[in-house]
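User: I'm curious what two different proteins look like when written out as structure tokens. Can you demonstrate?

Assistant: Sure. I'll show them one after the other, since each token string lines up with its own sequence. Here's the first protein:
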Amino acid sequence: MAKRARTPDWKGWLRRWDEQQQSFNPDRERRFTAMLDVLEAQVGRRSDVLDLGSGPGSLSARVLARFPRARVVAVDHDPVTLRIGRGALGSYGGRLTWVDTKMGAPGWDRALPRRRFDAAISTTALHWLRPPALRRLYQDLAHRIRRGGVVLNGDRLPSGRDDPARDRLEARVRTVRYSRHALDAQWTAWKRWWREAEREPALRAEFREHEARSAGHPRFHDTSLALHRDALRRAGFRDVGIVWQDLDTRVLYARR
């Protein structure tokens, strides 16, 4: 008799993803909560939301759990995390849609459902975009977010040209707060998760595609708060400002 294939523990992979992300971002849940509070205050509990750079759906799941009448479109370009998200969360009772597209690339938004959204949210993702792609993303979102809708971006956003002295101070405080040992442990947790996921037989095809796409992936860099603000305003967004922060980890808000 043929041996039955093992069913992957997709929920376990998502849980372990959250654990290693928390090691990088100890204020992660507070940032999530702040973003959801703004969503409820500005667009209400029955909202149609884009989750940009969703990964396996950590933020999407929190939106859907808190707001039972909300819908989310989770957008990412990593086949590994998308597969885990689909396996762990599925369609969440028909309220969650997964989209594989490269954010900020020309025509990226053509992969989205053909409707307007109440909000676009993102966390720890848009720092990968180079300035031209980031500007294109916000310009495209201006046509996808309804009037009165919002953009919320939670990420490490150094002040840049707006306040270089503050950047230097925050860097010193960060050094005091996080020892080198702690920083090394965080990177170890990240690398361990990816190494272990690569050994999951059900993800072999996704890892082959992951490697192919990684060849054209930009290197990590910190996109400044000044650049985000300027790009949002040029795209036609209003009331651009910070609604939550801890050092240079901030939630940037903009209203359409």
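Here's a second, unrelated protein for contrast:
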Amino acid sequence: MKLTAEEKYRYSRHLLLEEVGLEGQEKLKMAKVLVVGAGGLGCPVLLYLAAAGVGTIGVIDFDTIDVSNLQRQILFSTDDLGRSKAKVAKEKLNANNPFIEVISYNEQLTNENALDIFSKFDIIVDGTDNFHTRYLVNDACLIANKPLVYGAIHKFEGHVSVFNYQEGPTYRCLFPTPPEAGSIPSCSEVGVVGVLPGIIGTQEANEVIKIILGIGKVLSGRLLIYNALQSSFMEIQINKTEAMIFKKEEFLKFDYQGYCEGSIVLEKSITLEELVKLSSDVFVVDVREVWEQPQLESKHVLHAPLHEIAGYVNEIPTDKEVYVICQHGVRSKVAIEYLEKECNFTNLINVEGGMLG
């Protein structure tokens, strides 16, 4: 696929590189890359792949843009609030580079659509923020035989690797089983420094470009770990194991959310809508940080942040039903599990989905 005169000038700094040159830039133009998630990681990946001239870029994300995203999701602005991330990403990337094709999927990635979508691309980039989607993406890549560029962030630490590349290790070789439910909360639960996804996302984009061009040493079999507080990188080796590999029929039926979140099983739960219909004297334990919004309007709310929950045990009644709530319903489950196992509570009810439903 030949470059136009305009493209040659646009990518002239690439063409000057012996490792890229005209042939390499044409490889980039022919490449098809799918980015799963247009969040903190996906935004810098998308921006740099578009700028580099990757000819076809797919982006799948079912979420809409919230003001809390703007601290790190650099594709978006205040004017984009409430709009589809996938659709806005397509508009912004097309505006940045009119010589590429951007395909947006404003939908959730599932067992049912993953294989069909992945079949249209050469490389898959993981920009997700939860374990059940990461396992789903890994397994779909194995079935579709696509290399997977992986990134993850947590507070001040980030990970990058490449899986399923030239028969190398997979995500399941690194994480054979998911962590205990709630043990590693998402960014929306514990926060993340805004520049970290930019650093990790650009590393992911770099791996994509190396794979397309066939240059350098791809991060297959290695996990790159970055610590933003120390400004340090380290690597650990990932050995290939006899990890679980699904057949297509098994993959289509597998319950990934249950697989990753099933370790905390609560017998009692209600929704926020049901909670607000109860009498005003119900006792609620809010395990969020005190600054988190929206606040719960009730006279009987005990603010007991999850990391300090042990210090509030004596303030939680044992002689009546107590409703435990957080922002999304993850920390409340962890709190209930702790209070039931360590403090013998039997009267706790989880508010499923938390304050944001």
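A detail about the second structure: The mean pLDDT is 92.
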